Amino acid sequence: MSLVQHSSSEATSPVPIIETDDQGRPVKSTSTNGYFPSNGQHLPSSANGTVTPSFVDNMSHLSVVRGRDDSDAASIRSTSSRTSRKPQMQLASYQDEFTTSVYGSRFAGMDLPRHHMPENEMPRDIAYRMIKDDLSLDNNPMLNFFTSLASFVTTYMEDEAEKLMAESFSKNFIDYEEYPQSADIQNRCVNMIGDLFHAPPGESVGTSTVGSSEAIMLAVLAMKKRWKNRRQAEGKSTEHPNIVMSSAVQVCWEKATRYFEIDEKLVYCTPDRFVMDPDEAVDLCDENTIGMCAILGTTYTGEYEDIKAINDLLIERNLDVPIHVDAASGGFVAPFVVPDLEWDFRCEKVVSINVSGHKYGLVYPGVGWVIWRSPEYLPQELVFNINYLGADQSSFTLNFSKGASQVIGQYYQLIRLGKHGYRAIMSNLTRTADYLTETLEKLGFVIMSERSGAGLPLVAFRFKTVEEGGDPDRYYDEFALAHHLRSRGWVVPAYTMAPNSGVKMLRVVVREDFTKSRCDQLICDVKLCHGLLKETDQESIKKREEYIRTHISAMGRGKHAHPVYKGESHSLQGKTGKTHAIC
User: Which candidate, 148, 172, 162, 174, places its Cα nearest to that of 59?
Assistant: First the structure.
């Protein structure tokens, strides 16, 4: 996991700039060499007219993030105005014929032909994948196949990506002397991701990790060390550091506070609010607050916390409290669906961001990334300068050896899809999530998640309460519906929502391979299972749930928990019964 500084020029090979019209379709460039946009704004170039490559002089573990010219610096600074404007969703056009990725194509958002032969051709790889996805719900006793809608983790990559990754299985990423190009590929990824998050050019640093959990651990360590250094310089106590965060955080945040001896200050969810309230969060800050966690897409409802409002409140109150953005899921969604949403380094209080490559970064697990605004926010004493097998490198990591495959897979996706491809895929996912939302709402469910790009492409829903007009005689809950859906081949998890919300819910994660055709199949089975529950007596439902707890599910038995450590009471789950959502 190298720490690489963000460079001021692109770290890519010469590639043509593809211009598009207002519908997103490619048009022929009016430039003479094909490498420059027709509006006269040139990319950094060399004498021969190609894009100038950049490199890190000394192969390092720590990458400097390089991206925009210094003239763009003003565009990444946030104003202190708290004027909020709802960002507009900007989806890719269905008319776009240039997209070559299967799930970014218009076919992924359409029904498969049923009654008439289509007028036009479908690319063979797309036809194969669409039919393969359709057949995936066939009963297959040999595989005991289930379609999981529980996890954000990527389950599909192109054959070429898999081949590249397989060819690198034996490479130890830490060995820069033997595999210098693999390390440089990581540096390129840091550059591109830092640029996507509006990182200050020439200042920010970043590194790859095995996932967002490790990235968050590193970011929390950096915040704590920086706070401690400042307190010591002021001659003040360094006891009882705390961090402010939502009660809906992923369990890795609880681990970080426990492992690094940091007190938790929680902003609790309510029955009608599932994210942090900015005012309440800032009110909890004091002189011992090392930082604040803001989530770009909670694991329960997918809602984006109002990071800009938190940022502006901290500025108004003149509080020296940094923000770390947990963009594990939203970091590869928001920049393409709601690009005007200010959540990243455009907000001056945001000092670090993590993102998972193996979620909407579209790479198999596990790979994550963490970017810091500048070395000021990554204390020097946490970084180790080492010489491993003849190569000098700077290292800030919780482990050492790891495979290079996932980093290479991330680079493949970034250059294979580009911004255009990611936008097309995330647009399709958003449309599918909105379609499922509208349909479930018509079926009488209460929708808890956001829509129209205001959150992650997922659908969180529940039954209506009696006060909301629900059936007063309903004796089954969301967990019963989840059990019945599993019998139809769908893994749709049910959860007990974050503490103080008093809510049960189901959640469908719309991933790249969840096409509209598969969505329609799910809707049919939701109708069927709900109808079966209505017709089943209460005693039979109770017996079925007890059987599942005893023989199939680990929920009631804790089969994967060591008997010595079962029944802990120090976590939010142990204290409140909160169920940690699958990531």
Answer: 174
List the structure tokens of 183: 């390390």
Dump the DSSP string for 117-165: --SS---HHHHHHHHHHHHTTS--TTTT--EE-S--S-----HHHHHHH
Considering the entire predicted model, what is its pTM? Answer: 0.79
Looking at residues 8-21, what average pLDDT do you find? 42
Work out the average pLDDT over 34-43: 33
Convert 198-224 to b/e letters by CB count within 10 Å (16 or more is b).
bbbbbbbbbbbbbbbbbbbbbbbbbbb
Contact 575, 583 (CB under 8 A): no
Instruction: Tell me the per-residue pLDDT of 284-332, one tens digit each, with 9 for 90 and over.
Output: 999 999 999 999 999 999 999 999 999 999 999 999 999 999 999 999 9
Find residue 20's DSSP bridge partners: 26
Cβ distance 328 to 212 under 8 Å?
yes
How far apart (Å, rounded) are the C-alpha atoms in residues 219 and 214? 9
Check whether 131 has a pLDDT greater than 90: no
**What is the C-alpha separation between 260 and 262, in angstroms, rounded?**
6
Strand 242-246 vs strand 19-20: parallel, antiparallel, or unpaired?
unpaired
- C-alpha–C-alpha distance, residues 337 and 268, integer Å: 28
Arithmetic mean of pLDDT, 434-460: 97
Task: Say how many C-beta atoms besides its own lie within 10 A of residue 352's C-beta.
Answer: 27
| CATH hierarchy code of domain 204-377+395-400 | 3.40.640.10
Nearest to 158, CA basis, from 123, 110, 113: 123
Q: What are the residue boundaries of the structural domains of the chain, listed by start?
A: 204-377+395-400, 419-576
Residue type, 178: E
pLDDT digits (tens, 9 = 90+) for 155-178: 999 999 999 999 989 887 777 677
Beta strands 458-462 and 62-65 are unpaired
How many whole angstroms from its chain centre is CA 507?
Answer: 16
Rounded CA-CA distance 39/50 in Å is 17
The alpha carbon dihedral of 329, 331, 337, 340 has a sign of positive
Inter-residue contact 173 to 555 (CB < 8 Å): no
Alpha-carbon distance 90 to 88, whole Å? 6
> Tokens in use for 577?
């019964």
- Sorting pLDDT into bands at 50, 70 and 90, what band is 417? very high
Task: Note the CATH architecture for domain 419-576.
Answer: Alpha-Beta Complex (3.90)
Q: Enumerate the H helices of 317-458 as residue ranges.
A: 334-337, 405-442
**Pair of tokens at residue 547:** 């059987």
Please state whether 477 falls in left (phi above 0), alpha (psi between -120 and 50) or beta.
beta
User: Looking at the predicted structure, is the pLDDT value of residue 127 above 70?
Assistant: yes
- State the Cα–Cα distance between residues 174 and 207, nearest whole angstrom: 12
Alpha carbon distances (Å) from 275 to 105, 216, 468: 33, 19, 22
Cα torsion 308, 290, 383, 399: sign: negative
Q: Peptide bond preceding 489: is omega within 30 degrees of 0, i.e. cis?
A: no
The residue ranges of DSSP E strands in 374-503, in sequence order, are 384-388, 391-395, 446-447, 458-462, 490-491, 494-496
Distance CA 410, CA 151 (A): 19
Residue 276 has pLDDT above 80, yes or no: yes
* Residue-level length of the chain: 583
